[in-house]
Specification:
Blueprint (H helix, E strand, L loop, with lengths): L1 H10 L10 H10 L5 E3 L2 E2 L2 E2 L1 H9 L6 E5 L4 H9 L4 E4 L4 H15 L7 E3 L2 E4 L4 E4 L2 E4 L2 H12 L5 E2 H9 L9 H16 L4 E5 L3 E5 L5
Parallel strand pairs: 1-4, 4-5
Antiparallel strand pairs: 2-3, 6-7, 7-8, 8-9, 10-12, 11-12
Length: 215
Amino acid sequence: MAQVIRSMLERNGIACDAVNSLGQAAAAMADARYDAMILDRGLPDGDGLQVLARIRAMRESIPCMVLTARDALGDRVDGLDAGADDYLTKPFEMDELLARTRALLRRSQPWMPTEVTFGDLRVEPQLSSLRVAQSCMTLSPTELQIMLALARHEGGVVRRSMLETAAWGLSSAVTPKALDVAIHRLRGKLATLRSTVSIANSKGIGYALVVPEDA
């Protein structure tokens, strides 16, 4: 079920990691900062609410949806009292899960602008597009996450590992050249749009957006 949900979210442009135990969840959250969490209760090494309780004890405000077959009133109350923002019982419809996940993401990033700008570029997350003046090109989910990460760093070098995590998540098996191929495609789109912005390679470290001083 976790892999099915992960595939559905990624098809809809949401990078997602899937883990199978309390221990794996704790390790993943130690390595990355997440915008939202979908949590099952019946995990092999304990109740998923243990993860949530630990997170809330650390005053982490990551929005969390509990997704479980435990549908009794007492179970729902326990989940919400433990700090869950939403509680969805099985069976469920994927469309509803997607809508609730998007609501969680809006809650975690209420400051998220409708676009992120750098130089003459406008990255439009809601439209999955890259725009220069009146010209526009569609971005794949992977390209969108890479461009957002680069644009938000405002010309700073973004490490390869950060870009890979943004685009594919921690759980994906990413080939060493996957990021370079995606960057090549993005450079082609920048050229097509005739943007003054380019993507510079900091060899062995990562990539950055740059604008010529006279642009």
